[in-house]
TrEMBL record:
UniProt-listed Enzyme Commission number(s): 1.14.13.208
Taxonomic classification: Bacteria, Pseudomonadati, Pseudomonadota, Betaproteobacteria, Burkholderiales
Species annotation: Cupriavidus necator (strain ATCC 17699 / DSM 428 / KCTC 22496 / NCIMB 10442 / H16 / Stanier 337) (Ralstonia eutropha)
Gene3D superfamilies linked: 3.30.70.20, Nucleotide-binding domain of ferredoxin-NADP reductase (FNR) module, Translation factors
Protein name as it appears in the record: Benzoyl-CoA oxygenase component A
One Gene Ontology molecular-function label: iron-sulfur cluster binding
């Protein structure tokens, strides 16, 4: 392929300043256009076909930059960057034939604050609470950690994330980059009226940041970047219906959604449905918190795949069991769908949505999904 040099083209670039090197873009690229070295993730202009499959998985928006260029930047140039070059304007669409960005925030969502704290100038938060979020006999070692930012401004919205900077250096002698964690509390704080946020952290064998966080004790401090994320946000219409589907620690943002509805939107008329999957009840973070909610506030569907002497039930099975109501909600322009958790859940959940829409004159799932995406009502954060 010969690239033009005398006319402007649109080149897809990744912002190294906010990329957290999670590899989601490279994994999702169907043409192998995205690669990386020890420094940056980059896009090969000769391979990229602007399909935008890499956009939805990116948790920070680093992937969503499109530059008009006369001479494309080479891979070597991109690999050397610490920041995007100037005076190019990031995020500018220049080609009328480009397809629209696939993922957007709900129209009624509050405007998020972004990137107030960087790796070079992070916030410093104090650990005020660290307790198990799963039962002691659970296979998954999950912890509920509360961070207090004191008098530092950290305006977090439900569905946003923060990055934790683990101490020490990597194999190349560079400071470790941040690891991203969804916030599990409402914008008013884990404890209402405080500058606190809650995290739901699964300790991973050999995991650098998860073991660091899960080993902290109250009084110790952590360095934090963010806030991050501007699409997986809670709609603010009182009449919005939320279908929330999650596995394991994917419940974190939904805990924040429910907390905010409970505190600040008690008069909301929209329904809340939570499909929560795990192997056994003891494996579910925050299992039992639902008992403290007003009756009927959230419709919980717990789906267990490893219960003794019981059939395996996954979140997609829960969706099918609630098929009649799901069918009605998916046809409702006030309904928002959020998926969070293990990546393997996506195909099963979409298949379940497709199944419940068959018959009764309902629109086919691809058409409904397209409408949901176009109106900022379909969101997926999987890992």
């Amino acid at each position: 392929m010969t690239l033009p040099t005398s006319t402007s083209i649109t080149q897809h670039l990744i912002d190294p300043a906010i990329c957290i090197r999670c590899n989601s873009c490279e994994e999702s690229c169907p043409v192998g256009a995205i690669t990386h070295d020890h420094n940056n993730y980059v896009v090969d202009v000769e391979r990229c076909n602007h399909c935008r499959a890499c956009l939805p998985p990116c948790p920070t928006g680093a992937i969503n930059h499109w530059y008009p260029v006369q001479q494309p930047y080479t891979l070597a140039q991109q690999l050397s960057w610490q920041d995007l070059p100037t005076p190019m304007q990031a995020g500018t669409e220049t080609d009328a034939n480009e397809s629209p960005v696939l993922v957007r925030a709900p129209a009624s969502a509050s405007a998020p604050a972004l990137h107030l704290y960087s790796r070079a100038a992070p916030a410093v938060a104090t650990v005020t609470l660290r307790e198990r979020a799963t039962a002691l006999d659970a296979d998954d070692d999950v912890w509920h950690i509360v961070l207090d930012f004191g008098n530092q401004a950290m305006p977090i919205l439900e569905g946003q994330s923060i990055g934790i900077l683990p101490p020490g250096l990597d194999a190349n002698g560079r400071p470790h980059i941040e690891r991203l964690y969804s916030v599990a509390s409402a914008r008013t704080g884990e404890r209402r009226g405080t500058s606190t946020v809650a995290l739901t952290v699964r300790r991973k064998p050999g995991g650098l940041c998860s073991n660091y966080l899960c080993g902290l004790v109250p009084g110790e401090t952590v360095r934090v970047v963010g806030p991050l994320g501007d699409t997986f946000l809670m709609p603010m219409e009182a009449s919005a219906n939320l279908i929330m589907v999650c596995t394991g620690t994917g419940v974190a943002p939904f805990r924040g959604f429910i907390q905010h509805r409970l505190r600040s939107m008690r008069g909301a008329t929209g329904s809340l449905m939570l499909f929560f999957g795990g192997r056994r009840p003891v494996e579910l973070p925050y299992c039992g918190e639902e008992d403290g909610l007003p009756e009927g506030f959230v419709d919980h569907y717990f789906c267990f795949s490893r219960q003794p002497d019981a059939p395996r039930i996954y979140v997609q099975d829960g969706i099918r069991a609630a098929g009649k109501r799901i069918r009605t909600l998916l046809q409702d322009e006030l309904t928002h769908v959020f998926l969070c958790g293990r990546k393997g859940m996506e195909a099963g959940v979409e298949d379940a949505f497709a199944g419940v829409l068959r018959g009764d004159g309902a629109s086919a799932w691809p058409m409904v999904r397209e409408r949901l995406l176009a109106s900022g009502r379909y969101h997926v954060e999987t890992y």
